[in-house]
Write a structure and sequence with these properties.
By secondary structure, this protein is α/β, with parallel strands linked by helices. The protein is 28% helix and 27% strand. The two termini are 17 Å apart.
Length: 380
């Protein structure tokens, strides 16, 4: 049997890596197996739309991977044994020669969130929130906790879709305080137009039955939504892979584990250095480039070729303000805001193009020079 590359997770990073590797190794004796707990691809960057009541298109992984030779195995990963090179998924032990760990992240926990909070960090969570909002009556109070990109988009989407609700956003800093002045002004104007109350400098400690608690005082809400960032999937924590303090797999510039050279980690699962010596942030903007890099490095090692000179970098941060408005903040390679930004309808079109292009790329081969007729080598 040929070399087996086992890939865990079919999010933006994992699916990018699988698709790219299948192109690069098309004429070689390599088995690529993609393990995922769903048969469809989740557009995570659209889950705020799902939560607000919109229906999203369904993208079957079998259709996106048609003709690639990638074998899809639908199962939930339970554990990794990096010493024995095996993964247990739904009780079945699956061996590998090279592992690509792309299990991503989930919403970061906040005390009381499980009992009293809501989230749109997963499809199931977004659907539960959608159901609760569907039952909300005139004037009910919705509190979004978290002033990052996710929190801003959820608050705006709900406020636009349900103007009869009272929507507020609580953030420990200022509204969009990391953005350049022009983008920050447009963001604030958008929130004012949508009638969103902004509570700045408020650090929420926990959720309770009547809202959220900050500095011992209750911030009242009928629906409290956690948008306080993301935490990596805990599966890696049960392995011997070297992790950083947050639980991400520590990798080098090739997305290769620094402790186990037969393992690569990509996307939210990886602790990787980006431009300017700054760690890559958890995002689609990091996930797809790291998947591309890992695929190129694996193909090069297996065919004894020179690896491509690819590095992850940033170009923009995009923020939807409902369906008719948005902000695109252009950034430096190391994710610092530039003066320039795009707003309004042009920004809406810009972001929509990015979302659609990401899905399109999973179903189409991009230009590549496949590794042909080369003897395979160990990736270790």
């Amino acid at each position: 049997m040929g070399h087996r590359v086992l890939m865990l997770g079919a999010g933006y990073a994992g699916l990018t890596a699988a698709r790219r590797l299948s192109t690069l190794l098309r004429h070689n004796d390599v088995e690529i197996v993609l393990v995922n707990d769903r048969t469809d691809f989740v557009e995570r960057i659209r889950l705020h739309q799902l939560a607000a009541g919109q229906d999203l298109p369904r993208h079957e992984l079998a259709d996106l991977l048609a003709g690639t030779g990638v074998r899809l195995h639908c199962a939930r990963v339970e554990s990794i044994d990096a010493e024995e090179r095996t993964v247990v998924a739904d009780g079945e032990a699956i061996g590998y020669d090279t592992l690509v760990y792309a299990l991503g992240s989930a919403g970061a926990p906040l005390p009381g969130a499980a009992e009293h909070g809501w989230s749109a960090a997963s499809p199931a969570g977004a659907l539960r929130l959608r159901g609760r909002l569907g039952r909300a009556g005139q004037g009910e109070r919705v509190l979004v906790v978290g002033g990052g990109l996710t929190g801003l988009e959820i608050a705006a989407e709900i406020a636009e879709a349900r103007p009869e609700l009272s929507v507020a956003l609580a953030t420990s800093g200022g509204l969009g305080d990391w953005l350049a002045p022009a983008a920050r002004r447009h963001l604030r104007r958008g929130f004012d137009r949508l009638g969103i109350e902004v509570r700045e400098g408020v650090r929420i400690e926990r959720f309770g039955p009547g809202g959220a608690v900050a500095d011992g005082a209750l911030v009242p809400a009928d629906v409290s939504i956690a948008a306080t960032g993301f935490a990596p999937n805990p599966i890696a924590a049960g392995s011997t892979l070297r992790l950083d303090d947050s639980g991400q797999v520590v990798v080098d510039a090739a997305m290769r584990s620094v402790s186990h050279p037969d393992v690569y980690a990509v996307g939210d699962a990886a602790w990787a250095m980006g431009p300017g010596g700054r760690p890559l942030r958890m995002s689609c903007s990091s996930g797809m480039p790291t998947g591309w890099i890992a695929a190129g490095e694996i193909a090069a090692r297996l065919t004894d070729r020179r690896p491509p000179r690819l590095r992850a970098r940033y170009f923009h941060q995009t923020i939807s303000l409902g369906r008719r408005d948005a902000v695109v903040q252009f950034v430096t390679a190391d994710d610092r805001p530039k003066r320039g930004c795009l707003t309004g309808r042009a920004a809406v079109r810009y972001k929509e193009t990015l979302c659609r292009t990401a899905v399109w790329s999973f179903a189409h081969d991009l230009p590549a020079k496949p590794a042909r007729n080369g003897a395979l080598h160990s990736a270790a």
